[in-house]
Amino acid sequence: MTREDDSLREAVAGERQSSEEVHGNSDGSHEEGIGQPHQGVEESDSSEDEVAPRNTIGDVPFKWYEDEGHIGYDITGKKIKKRAKQDKLDSFLANADDSKNWRKIIDEYNDEEVELTKHEVKLIGRMLRGRAPHADFDPYTPYVDWFDWDGAKHPLSNAPEPKRRFTPSKWESKKVVRYVRAIRKGLIKFDKPKEESRFYMLWSDDSRSTEKARNGLAYIPPPRPKLPGHEESYNPSLEYIPTQEEINSYQLMYEEDRPKFIPRRFTSLRNVPAYENATKEVFHRLMDLYLCPRTRKKRINIDPESLKPKLPSRKDLKPYPVTCYLEYRGHKGAVMSISAEASGQWIASGSTDGTVRIWEVETGRCVRVWEIGEGVNQVAWNPLPELPILAVAVGQDVVLLNTGIGNEDVQNSIEELLLLKTPSSSDESGYVNWVQDDKLHGIRLKHFKTVTTVEWHRKGDYFSIIMPAGESRAIYIHRLSQKVSQRLPFKLHGIPVASVFHPTRSVILVATKNSVRVYDLLKQKLVRKLDTGLRQVSSVAIHPGGDNVIVGSREGKLCWFDMDLSSKPYRILKCHEKDITNVAFHKSYPLFASSTDDCAAYVFHGMVYSDLNQNPLIVPLEILRGHTSTNGRGVMDCQFHPRQPWLFTAGADSVIKLYCH
After folding, report:
1. What would the DSSP string read from start to end of 613-650?
2. Cβ-contact 472, 458 below 8 angstroms
3. How far apart are CA 441 and CA 445, in angstroms?
4. DSSP 8-state class, residue 140
5. In terms of C-beta distances under 8 Å and separation of at least 24 residues, what long-range contacts does 220-228 make, across chains too?
6. What's the rounded Cα separation, in Å, for the pair 114 and 659?
7. pLDDT classification of 210: cutoffs 50, 70, 90
8. Is the distance from CB of 563 to CB of 569 less than 8 angstroms?
9. Which of 41, 172, 252, 322 has the most beta carbons within 10 angstroms of its beta carbon?
């Protein structure tokens, strides 16, 4: 503690004592007469007076504990260790970091740091300026004569003050002279302040580590050198001595891989020569001790299994697809896309062989085949059960086909819907042409670039298409009822890869190679940008609730986004070995799946809770294998059954598989 701290501490004590006196006299006790009983002083409300001191050594000199590592004992008998002393640099940094650090003083008795309140600081300031501690105290109050003059003719004493009260005391001057002579002769000696050494041994023995710790130094003993083994012996066993071939092989190694010492045999210890690398090794060790920092690392023994998240058992998460129940064969090329009808009775598929087929789900029977004449990129079924219309992306065209499913009234409404009043119509810019296709009995939409994806709106009247090479006109939204087309009125930051409509709101999600942007179609503005952190996005799907999105990538990573939580991925799954071709959510079950080029489909449990404070639960369930690799491609597409926990997969081996629970 410094002298300033001592003065502050004494000032605080004096202030508290004076406050007690003021509080005790505040009720008019200073006006009491001689014969009146003395009233007790009010107790102080200071918390320091209420709490007992931590140190219980009593009133003993602190020098008894100078060479000890503690300052006393607490009420339970345990040692109170000394605090590490703070040098000037640390105190300067503390003052710079904490604006209230100047209020803190050190309690030497309890070895604690005490922070003064603003009220106490004000009182100390008044005392240092020679004023009364309390601002409401008036030192110039009118004099109150406490003497009772009733019946008295004279005061107590009317004698003048004696002269000795105004002259210096001779006895005190003689006492001072006696002390001065004793100090000069050396009879009285004062304790000199102990100076702390600024230097310490860096490579001293471990025996002095306690002394360094006592001085507040974070001493870390250097690592001991490796002790010599059997191979360093002057007469080692024969198995430690290398052969000449091994010695020659050492010369072919890199210098860092070459052994530092080769064992040799000597008949006696007298014949052992001096070690040629002794000086070099000692020099390197001293450099390591001097330059290499040593830090303490706390080793914690943790079972690796305890770090894994506790997931529920797969038996409790049933039903989910497990085994292959049915195969749909008929395509001659790779099946690029599949789509299930809203009722779940039919499924459509498109292949590179230029055909589009409709299958009956339960029997695997092919109901209808269209010869398109060009490789099919994607097929998409209208989500409305009363409009069984199929959209097919072929080259630069999108073909709307009448599947022929439904009763006579449904067919009449579809034929009327797929009939153009004029032979051909186009949008205002002329980039999209609506043409009646008499061969396929449908409508053909001709674009100026290759169409890769088709996505229907939930109402069944709108559908979007993506042309990656279309630049600013890469995404179009078509309306079937009015036969009109409109370019997406937003600036696309990158090449679009996939798009999906929001299941409940007028929002569209557009995935580029590096991010996913959410646009509001009514307000025509950007709502949110999802940063994937992926090199190239391949597919995107949205949860039926509308708040969670999964994104697949060409590098085998799958990202789960919680749009209410953050624009960063909530979870990144790295369980895929090759590119992810498609991702899909189930409409009613808490399931989602991904298909990859490693000839497998991965099924996950993805439960989204209505409670916003509870995070989504993601559990890997099953890896469905069965497809064979063709031209380096595996599973091209995957889709869930709209009502059952079944999964359809389309492979490059021209086979469609149905996996059931």
Report:
1. TSPPEEEEEEEEE----BTTB-EEEEEE-SSSS-EEEE
2. no
3. 13
4. T
5. 220/294, 220/295, 220/296, 222/289, 222/294, 225/285
6. 71
7. low
8. no
9. 322
Residues ≥6 apart with Cβ < 8 Å to 653: 334, 627, 628, 629, 630
Contact criterion met (CB below 8 Å) for 411 and 404? yes
Q: Which residues contact 30 (CB under 8 A, 6 or more apart)?
A: 144
| Neighbouring-strand partners of residue 603 | 593, 622
- For residue 647 the two structure tokens come to 């999964």
For residue 257, give the amino acid letter. D
Q: What is the pLDDT of residues 253-290, one digit of tens each?
A: 888 888 888 898 998 889 989 888 889 988 988 888 88
Q: Which residue, chain included where needed, has tokens 């153009």?
A: 420
Say how far apart CA 356 and CA 380 lie, in whole Å.
11
Sign of CA dihedral 578, 582, 583, 586: negative
Q: How many residues does the chain have?
A: 661
Nearest CA to 603 out of 630, 633, 639, 627 is that of 639
pLDDT at position 591 is 93
Return the number of other C-beta atoms located less than 10 Å from residue 446's C-beta. Answer: 16
Burial call 269-297: b when 16+ CB within 10 Å, e when fewer = eeeeeeeeeeeeeeeeeeeeeeeeeeeee
Nearest CA among 579, 543, 542, 544 for reference residue 558: 579
The letter for the amino acid at 271 is N
User: Does the pLDDT value for residue 238 go beyond 80?
Assistant: yes
Burial string for 562-583 (b: 16+ CB within 10 Å, else e) reads: bbeeeeebbeebeebebbbbbb
Q: Is the pTM of this model over 0.70?
A: no
Q: Which two tokens stand for residue 312?
A: 């529920």
Q: Which of 99, 101, 94, 103 is nearest to 125 (CA)?
A: 103
Residue 366, CB half-sphere, CA atoms under 13 Å: how many? 15
User: What counts of helices (H) and strands (E) characterise the chain?
Assistant: 10, 34
Q: Are 600 and 633 in contact (CB under 8 A)?
A: no
For the record, the structure tokens of 605 come out as 């449990």
Residue whose tokens read 């709490």: 51
